[in-house]
């Protein structure tokens, strides 16, 4: 009965209105920013490695790494596989669509996070709760978002990551999920009790290395199946548009699963990426907005697509018609929907290697995601609780998140995913409404950034001159000193 209730809540949150709303908001931002995700690609790449960290904030690259820690997780491996299992190959196309329009949403929310950030106990803090209160003046809504995010990040979503780690390690190495859960909790505790700097330092080394290794394996799978490239792309597009005779009947599922898993993987519009974006030391909010927009491309167009191609090129997948429960395609047997598809795909090319490699990749991807969840949860806790009780609350938060991580590792996968979908769904609804109502300052910041670039300047931001209220951090402009060492354009 409890599981049915949870499923009903998830289905309500992820009903057709949610899908339409996500796409429409992303398209609106795309048009209002004059297709920034196309015209500013070169600038996005240039900004990745510009700027340095300070005592108060982290560098753009470190903020990107922390954001990618949250974005690159089980959604890229398990989520992509699940989308193909229930939406068919066409779901991949809709993941691409939501990533493209979602990049504009990511820009808006991350730019807003920078505009309305503040310094708290010597560190930059910001995110949806901060820009909702300061930009919209809705304290109650900001508190509601913070509470929802705390529940999602600390209780509902860590289990999705730890469950996929435990299942994949059990598949590959036959290690009991209880043991994996305990090891996860111990390692995670050592890191999160070390604070944000330790989390960032781990993320900036682990995430790029593991993502590169994963993509290289995917490229090898594609190369040895080079002749199948036209057929695979044709299958994706025809399935997505209902033109394929086999998958045409589940076009609705293709769209729904593609959007849902695309959002889960990219986190565009969810508000999570806005938290590390606010921590970056930059001279203009649009800089970090552009960097975070590019992180959507890295996440979906590289890592998620790598997973999808490995599965589709190898044929290591099944697709189920949810309305009837019957298989439309059954290429493999005895493999549960999720990371098992990716493991079978790599095993088809590297016999005996695939399961272990994917399990290790999933461990690093999902583990760093849980780290990012903690940082996001802590940021919202800092918003809600200030003063002498903040330290106690922070320690309680750590214990709760560690408990949720262990619980997810030993629970059944379907329940873990459904709980995660609920947490994500609530955050997406709350945040998308907020950034839609509050998008004007982000558009002003982008226009100001573009104008300064045309003048040959390294853009700096002054909220007072631009008429943006309550952006106190930028009220007197950006001052470069020994702690703010953004590299200047020579």
From TrEMBL:
According to its record, how does it sit in the membrane?
A: Multi-pass membrane protein
Which keywords describe this protein according to UniProt? Cell membrane, Membrane, Symport, Transmembrane, Transmembrane helix, Transport
Major site of localization recorded for this protein: membrane
Task: Spell out where the chain crosses the membrane.
Answer: 12-31, 93-116, 137-160, 172-193, 205-226, 232-257, 296-317, 357-377, 389-410, 422-446
InterPro entries assigned to the protein according to its UniProt record, in alphabetical order? Na/Ala_symport
Q: Does the keyword Transmembrane helix apply?
A: yes
Q: Which domain of life is it from?
A: Bacteria
Which NCBIfam families does the record associate with it? agcS (TIGR00835)
What family does the database annotate?
Answer: Belongs to the alanine or glycine:cation symporter (AGCS) (TC 2.A.25) family.
According to UniProt, the name of this protein is Alanine:cation symporter family protein
């Amino acid at each position: 009965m409890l599981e049915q209730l949870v499923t009903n809540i998830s289905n309500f949150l992820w009903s057709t209105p949610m899908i339409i709303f996500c796409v429409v908001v992303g398209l609106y931002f795309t048009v209002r920013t004059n297709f920034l995700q196309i015209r500013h690609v070169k600038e996005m790449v240039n900004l990745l490695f510009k700027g340095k960290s300070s005592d108060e904030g982290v560098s753009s690259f470190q903020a990107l790494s922390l954001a990618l820690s949250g974005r690159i997780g089980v959604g890229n491996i398990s989520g992509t596989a699940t989308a193909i299992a229930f939406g068919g190959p066409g779901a991949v196309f809709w993941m691409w669509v939501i990533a493209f329009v979602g990049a504009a949403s990511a820009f808006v929310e991350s730019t807003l996070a920078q505009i309305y950030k503040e310094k708290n106990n010597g560190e930059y803090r910001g995110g949806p709760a901060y820009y909702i209160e300061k930009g919209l003046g809705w304290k109650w809504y900001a508190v509601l978002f913070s509470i929802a995010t705390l529940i999602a990040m600390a209780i509902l979503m860590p289990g999705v990551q730890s469950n996929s780690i435990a299942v994949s390690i059990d598949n590959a190495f036959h290690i009991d999920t209880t043991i994996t859960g305990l090891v996860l909790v111990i390692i995670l505790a050592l890191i999160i009790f070390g604070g944000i700097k330790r989390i960032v330092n781990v993320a900036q080394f682990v995430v790029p290395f593991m993502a590169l290794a994963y993509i290289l394996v995917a490229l090898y799978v594609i190369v040895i199946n080079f002749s199948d490239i036209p057929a695979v792309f044709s299958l994706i597009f025809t399935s997505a548009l209902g033109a394929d005779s086999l998958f045409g009947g589940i076009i609705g599922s293709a769209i729904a699963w593609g959007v849902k898993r695309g959002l889960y993987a990219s986190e565009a519009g969810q508000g999570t990426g806005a938290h590390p974006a606010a921590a970056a030391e930059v001279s203009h909010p649009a800089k970090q907005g552009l960097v975070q927009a590019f992180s959507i491309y890295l996440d979906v167009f590289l890592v998620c697509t790598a997973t999808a191609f490995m599965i589709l090129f190898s044929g290591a997948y099944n697709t189920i018609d949810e309305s009837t429960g019957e298989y439309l395609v059954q290429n493999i047997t005895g493999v549960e929907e999720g990371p098992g598809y990716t493991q079978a795909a790599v095993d088809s090319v590297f016999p005996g290697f695939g399961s272990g490699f994917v399990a290790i990749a999933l461990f690093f991807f999902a583990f760093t995601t849980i780290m990012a969840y903690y940082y996001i949860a802590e940021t919202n806790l800092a918003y809600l609780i200030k003063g002498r009780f903040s330290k106690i609350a922070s320690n309680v938060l750590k214990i709760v998140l560690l408990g949720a991580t262990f619980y997810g590792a030993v629970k059944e996968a379907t329940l873990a995913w459904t709980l995660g979908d609920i947490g994500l769904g609530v955050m997406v609804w709350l945040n998308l409404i907020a950034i839609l109502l509050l998008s004007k300052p982000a558009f002003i910041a982008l226009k100001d950034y573009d104008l300064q670039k045309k003048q040959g300047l390294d853009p700096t931001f002054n909220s007072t001159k631009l008429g943006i209220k309550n952006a106190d951090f930028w009220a007197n402009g950006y001052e470069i000193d020994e702690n703010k060492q953004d590299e200047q354009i020579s």
